[in-house]
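**Fold tokens**
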Amino acid sequence: MLVVRETIGVALASIRANALRSGLTTLGIVIGTAAVITMVALGEGAQRAVEAQIQRMGTNVLTVRPGQGWWRGVASGSVRLQESDAVALSNDMGGVYQIAPEAANRLQISYLRWNSNNQVVGTWPSYFPMHERPLSYGRLFTEGELQGRQRVAVLGSAVPEALGTPAALLVGRSIQIRGIRFEVVGVLEEKGSMGWENPDEQLYIPLTTALYRVMGNRDWLRAIYVSAPSPEQLEPAWAAIDRTIRREHRIRPAENADFQIQQASDFLETLGETAETFTMLLAGIAGVSLLVGGIGIMNIMLVSVTERTREIGVRKALGATRRAILFQFLVEALVLCALGGVLGVAAGFGSAEVVTQLYGRDTAVAPAAVFVAMGFSVAIGLFFGIWPARRASLLDPIDALRYE
């Protein structure tokens, strides 16, 4: 035990004696470890952001979208969902499930001297509770306004700013959508970006008004949303939707459907897998820096063996065994890598925080990433330190004492 302690002491003394060179040697490990931590933190943050967005979409919501049309087993172009499909779903599934069709188009919005280009969404009043869109000011449009094709609009939280007017003052005033006058009846609370779109920048009008007065697409819907009371009722809802839409489109059970039924968890799984793949890719690229740092440590250790050949010869002449010499140089390599790993972890935490503060990106440093980066750093020290240590241990003491 005393020999081991003395050997470790000699190794540490050698590192302190060449502090500048030791610091520069560990720099590659520091950069590599910090890069791995930062990249994994970015990937983990992105995955958590996706999960939060899917939660905001509603995990109990099924989405029906137009699909590929088929004729005698051959694809015949895309089809359209119609308002009658949503009405049929409401008649078949109403009461237990909420139904909300959606038509959308990007249109020019104007108020006084301000103009903006925003996505206008035509839908039913059930859309708002289904997607958890509470009001900040005013009210939502009603079923009567939907049936009467009234020109009323509910604005996302970011629209008033685009129109140069505070939200509270805009309620009750008239704006123009594609040159048609609409009364603003309400402004929604902030929802947050969904990644591919920002609901806060959208305007919501009655579906009948959108189809017959604004968009001119009387038989086109982008999607139909069906909300189940609980996740356990998603499966029967799926079957009921499939049965109803097939009946409306006159598609037999054995034939290919011309529509798609999607679930929020499907998006979560797909986007989660994509985020994980990119995280592994980025971490792998950053890991190359660790390998470069390990090669640098092996190079410096080989130089150290050459410089200290006479010292090795003296120690062997005084009775040091090959195992002691091997252990000494391995300890030096491991200490350098471990020190670089610790500094790299600290730098990785700092880099992740800087990215969050400067660029607003969500980051999350996973404990597993820290342990993997540290373990990898130590493993690199062990791997790249063995050859120089073995070379030092195999030196002949007589040849080493003669070395100049």
In short: The longest strand covers residues 98-111. The first helix runs from residue 2 to 17. The chain has two domains: 2-53+269-402, 61-263.
